[in-house]
Amino acid sequence: DGGRGRGAGPGATFSRTGPPSREREAAAFRESLNRHRYLNSLFPNENSTASYGINQFSYLFPEEFKAIYLRSKPSRFPRYPTDLQMSITNVS
Amino acid sequence: LPVRFDWREKHVVTQVRNQKMCGGCWAFSVVGAVESACAIKGEPLEDLSVQQVIDCSYSNYGCNGGSTLSALNWLNKMQVKLVKDSEYPFKAQNGLCQYFSVSHSGFSIKGYSAYDFSDREDEMAKALLTFGPLIVVVDAVSWQDYLGGVIQHHCSSGEANHAVLVTGFDTTGSTPYWIVRNSWGSSWGVDGYAHVKMGANICGIADSVSAVFV
Question: Please, which residues have CB within 8 angstroms of residue B50's CB and are 6 or more apart in sequence?
Fold first, then answer.
């Protein structure tokens, strides 16, 4: 990993061994198509709602996608004080 | 609050970038916030080095993952000067940290804030107006398939796993939404951006919010 010598870091649950096989990519693509149908079917009448479909990630299984692209570690953030009201300076 | 606001229209947001097969979203979002904060202060808008944060932010894991909070703490505590991307370009893999002389020009931060704004997205919008684009960490599992429109379902505030940059909001339509810059290239989503419904902590967008001061 480029001389870092560190562990694989957080969330390292999927380690790809070599380029994906055609079969694997085809299976992932089919699963993506099914997922798109489901996601788009639930709120068909909401005109502004998100649409889901084929993009550069459709050849990845969700666990592959997550293992490569979703690598930000969560942290605990203090709650914004309820009694605090931020005044907005005039934004020029 | 204005009905809509977008820092892109003030020309203080750099172009969408592509993290490729590197799990460095946490670095892209932090560097994006510093770029904008500096431009808001009158500095020229330019790409700063994400690779420097990936290689040198020792409490993170480079392309294997990291935390926005750790990166901000490192930038602030070490008073790191971020150099231009052209001087330390992105390689989409971990590398050995490159050091620069003290006299080398760069951009450092004076501080940062980090809050959970869930249930207070109106205050979060004020923070956006006051400090500039906000670093947020969201649950982006369903973003794998996103093509466009306002994300308002299928996106829990479960486990935060992806860092992005909120550059604006738009409440003029039937569904108010945050304007969110991603780091998956400009062909993803809406020219590289996602629109996430405001007011319901969709994707956990308000749980982990940071802003930088320069």
Answer: B17, B24, B27, B28, B31, B85, B90
Do B162 and A51 lie within an 8 Å CB cutoff? Answer: no
Q: In the block, which residue shows the tokens 């592959």?
A: A64
Q: Where are the alpha helices (DSSP H) in B8-101?
A: 25-40, 50-56, 68-77
What is the interface pTM, i.e. ipTM, of the complex? 0.94
**Sequence-ordered list of residues with C-beta below 8 angstroms from that of B78, at least 6 positions apart, any chain:** none
Nearest residue on chain A to B25, judged by CA atoms? Answer: A72
Judged by CB atoms closer than 8 Å, whether chains meet at A74 and B153 is answered as: no
- Give the Cα separation of A74 and A90 in Å (integer): 33
pLDDT tens for residues B91-111? Answer: 999 999 999 999 999 999 999
Tell me: the pLDDT tens digits for B59-88? 999 999 999 999 999 999 999 999 999 999
B71, B59, B58: which is closest to B28 by C-alpha?
A: B71
Amino acid at A63: E
